[in-house]
Amino acid sequence: MQAWADLSKPRGGGRQQRQQREQRHQHPQRREREARSPQAAAAACTRRPSTGTTLPPPPQQSQPQQPPHLQRERPQPAPPPTRVRLFYETGWPSAVLHGSVRGGPWRDWPLVAVAASGGRFLAADIDVGEGAGAGGQGGGAADPLLEFVVTDASRTHWDKPPPEARANYVVPAEAAATATTTTAAAAATAAAAATATTTAAAATATATATATAGAAPPPPSAHLWTLRAGELAPVAPSPPGLLLVTDLDGTMIGADDASTAALRAWWEAEAVPRGGVLCFNTGRPLASVLRLLEREKRGVLAHPDVVVSAVGTRVYWHERATPAAGGGRGGFPTTGGNGNGNGNGNGNGNGNGNGSSSSHNGNNGNGPSSNGGGGGFVEDAQWASELEGGGWDAPAAREAAYAALARAGREAMHFLPPEDQGPLKISCGVRDDALPSVIEQLREGLSCRRGALEAAQIVVSGCGGWRYVDVVPRRAGKLAALERVRALGGFAPARTVAAGDSGNDVAMLAGGGNLALVVGNAQPDVARWAEGQQRAEREAAAAAAAAAAAAVGRGASEAAASSAAAAAAALPGGGKERLYRARKHEAAGILEALEYWGLKEGGE
Questions:
Q1: Do 391-473 and 78-390+475-604 have the same topology in CATH?
Q2: pLDDT grade, residue 206 (50/70/90)?
Q3: Pairing of strands 515-518, 496-500
Q4: DSSP of 66-124, one letter per residue?
Q5: Cβ contacts of residue 206 below 8 Å, gap of 6+?
Q6: Please, which pLDDT band fits residue 583 given cuts at 50, 70 and 90?
Q7: Which stretches of 511-578 are assigned E, i.e. beta strand?
Q8: Residue 540 to residues 25, 165, 197, 207, 439: CA-CA distances in angstroms?
Q9: Coil, strand or helix: which one is 415?
């Protein structure tokens, strides 16, 4: 408003105002004075003629457009991590890290059990950013990033390096610079690997998937270190920490307990200290998953950090989940904060520091709430709220299911037990021959209520004469829940793996740009789907490579040549498949695929 008011004022004013107006409007007299200046004469060769003629623009070499699945932002230098994340292998149920950050005062951090490690590791997350530890006392450039010892909760027993080594454990200051360099290199390598591993998916699927898959993963949010049997060592950047999202029945568990136990042993020893996060994405309710962990598969099945249950309608986070390696921390409960005590111990067992810190698992930004789910899990109430707010009409879904049951008869259709039902999921068992008519009846029943059909989806899975039929919100499902977990954990698609064997797994196997695997014992319809999906992705990758090669032949820039090479690398044989069909069954198939992608040591 003020600008318009100024235009309505008289055009008078003093000398300074006149000069300002001349500058704004390029007064002719001022232009003449400038034209006589030496600076103007020097620039005359670049000034456009005042006669109104237009000089032709300089010729520019056209740059061929990169295929969509190869377009990505140029990687930026990664900031150095500002935390040290320590995984401590011990038999103690709990412990305290007593230490000093950058030469600052000694304080305490609790080491908290990591659920997914099966009691093997305790973990602490320590802020080591500039000025985090000194507090105005010390903190010179020669001071280590972190100096510490470990004691049990009663401070009776202390874990220190052998006397011939040094007095305390030390994370050197050089680790910050090394981590920054390694992070930048890893980001560039991961970006290239993501392009090679994530082939363009079928046209229906993945304009978005392939674009996101080509992006470099976020830099690690912390220096990862392990302390095992007196040996303090940094975690190698390769293979990286990953998010493994797996179905349970027929994929992670089944008749082969030995392969399930082998995956658990590898996960606890290697994946956890790399910041790996394990998510069970299952049709089972949480209570059924807890029975597996506590009784039926106790000692065999790895403990998850996250449980997505009821076909993607419920998300539960464990209160002692592994701190995510991907960088995101908004939704993951932390295993410890910064100690705030004033202990003055010198790290040799004689300190009397009384610092304390506390873990938190409340609602942080868009993370999970603290609604109890049992077994140490808390429900992501925001996720449930988003599904309920999407127009989902549970009464309409229930009425449609009753109408379908009345028409099909109880010999061809039945409701699953009460624990398999919920406010966001209606579940039935349907005989194969009655499946088409039941689905038609469900759609017809939902369409009787305004908006109910558009807000719902029908998910079919299972085999062997009977199928599971679930009616859930359209916003729900295994892929949507996977994306929720991936976003909160900060994992790139190229470091996210989905594993499945049945029909309700197809969405997370096909979409999102993440890596995916179908185990060797997959149900026949899923095996057929995987074969067709692989063929479509190969054809799309081949077309992209051909287009890039043609652009090179028409007179190629270096960028176009690089695009062609990257597209060729995405072809089977030149790179890695995004969707992998394992030969081995159940959990052994998961390990086979992880080795194939280089996410587990010992692969191709």
A1: no
A2: very low
A3: parallel
A4: PPGGG--PPPPPPPPP-EEEEEEE-S-S-EEEEEEETT---EEEEEEE-GGGTTSEEEE
A5: 69, 200, 511, 513
A6: very high
A7: 515-518
A8: 56, 57, 14, 11, 33
A9: strand
Phi/psi of residue 220, each to 5°? -60, 145
Contact 194, 215 (CB under 8 A): yes
Q: Is residue 1 very low, low, confident or very high in pLDDT (cuts 50, 70, 90)?
A: very low
Query: How many whole angstroms separate alpha carbon 460 and alpha carbon 427?
Result: 10
Q: Where are the alpha helices (DSSP H) in 121-173?
A: none
Q: How far apart are CA 67 and CA 64, in angstroms?
A: 9
Residue 214 half-sphere exposure, CB side, CA atoms within 13 Å?
23
What is each CA distance from 57 to 46, 48, 470, in whole angstroms? Answer: 12, 11, 62
- Domain extents in the chain: 78-390+475-604, 391-473
Q: Which residues contact 586 (CB under 8 A, 6 or more apart)?
A: 250, 251, 252, 253, 254, 255, 256, 259, 260, 519, 521
Pair 273, 237: CB distance under 8 Å: no
Report the C-alpha gap between 182 and 202 in whole angstroms.
Answer: 35
CA angle 415, 308, 272 (to 5 degrees): 145
Contact partners, residue 460, CB within 8 Å, separation at least 6? 435, 439, 467, 468, 469, 470, 503, 504
Q: Tell me what the pLDDT averaged over the chain comes to.
A: 75
What is the radius of gyration, based on Cα positions, of the chain? Answer: 30
* Alpha-helix runs per DSSP H in 150-294: 174-197, 207-213, 257-266, 286-291
Which among 277, 223, 268 has a CA at the least distance from the CA of 86? 223
Sign for the pseudo-dihedral over CA of 206, 209, 214, 215: positive
CATH pick for 391-473 out of 3.90.1070.10, 3.40.640.10, 1.10.10.10, 3.40.1170.60 = 3.90.1070.10
8 Å CB contact between 316 and 330: no
Distance of CA 52 to the CA centre of its chain: 57
Q: Rounded to a whole number, what is the distance in angstroms from the first to the last CA of the chain?
A: 67
- Amino acid at residue number 410: R
Phi-psi region of 91 (alpha: psi -120 to 50; beta: other; left: phi over 0): alpha
**Residue 486 burial class via C-beta count within 10 angstroms: exposed 0-12, middle 13-18, buried 19 and up:** buried
Q: What is the pLDDT of residues 261-308, one digit of tens each?
A: 999 999 999 999 998 999 999 999 999 999 999 999 999 999 999 999
Structural tokens at position 24: 């704004």
Q: Tell me how far apart the alpha carbons of residues 180 and 182 are, in angstroms, rounded to a whole number.
A: 5
User: What does CATH list as the number for 78-390+475-604?
Assistant: 3.40.50.1000
CA distances (Å), 523 to each of 205, 506, 519, 531, in order?
A: 22, 11, 9, 13
pLDDT in tens, 121-179: 999 999 988 656 544 444 556 789 999 999 999 999 999 998 877 789 999 987 655 55
